[in-house]
Amino acid sequence: MAYDAKDALAALPDAGAVTVLLDGHHDSDLINRGLAADAGHRSTFGDEAGSGLRSPVRPT
User: Which of 48, 50, 54, 57 is the most buried (most CB within 10 A)?
Assistant: First the structure.
């Protein structure tokens, strides 16, 4: 969700540099490091992210 927020904010016209910080989550530090590095969810969480996430089904 934090990665999606960063992408959405960065896509706004004239947004400039975007920094998103997550607070109060048990993995806040890890997620914030991933956000700062533009690593994405899968790169940040490695194998933990692989099988537990499904892509949303979008109508065509």
Answer: 48
